[in-house]
Amino acid sequence: MKYALIKNNKVELISYKPIEGYVEVNDNVFADMVKKSDGTFDYTNDFKSAHTKVDNYADKRIKEYGSIAEQIEYITENGLDAWQTKVNSIKAKYPKN
Predict the structure, then answer these.
(1) Distances 66 to 17, 46, 83 between C-alpha atoms, Å
(2) Which SS3 state, helix, strand or coil, does residue 29 take?
(3) First CA to last CA across the chain, in angstroms?
(4) CB 25 within 8 A of CB 1
């Protein structure tokens, strides 16, 4: 079990041993979480927004290229030149910064 120092319904600190003023919490409770009215804990929307990964150009390209198997199938069905045209259009759509 863990113990949390909670101020204004926000988890300020976590300890793995009991400390006066800390309350016992589940192992899935972490600092910067807020205690909701139903007694559960969750991160604030501000915290979630600040820690959400934003895809860069490379991530966007990889998603659009498809898996290696999908690319091989595309080449088999449409030819290498068509695949290269597709790749170039994706690169133009998501240029390096």
Answers:
(1) 48, 32, 12
(2) coil
(3) 46
(4) yes
- Going residue by residue through the chain (97 aa), what tens digit of pLDDT does each one get? 899 999 999 999 999 999 999 999 999 999 989 999 998 999 988 888 888 888 899 999 999 999 999 999 999 999 999 999 999 999 999 999 7
* DSSP per-residue letters across 31-94: TTEEE-TTS-EEE-HHHHHHT-----HHHHHHHHH--HHHHHHHHHHH-HHHHHHHHHHHHHHS
Phi, psi dihedral angles at 10 (to 5 degrees): -115, 135
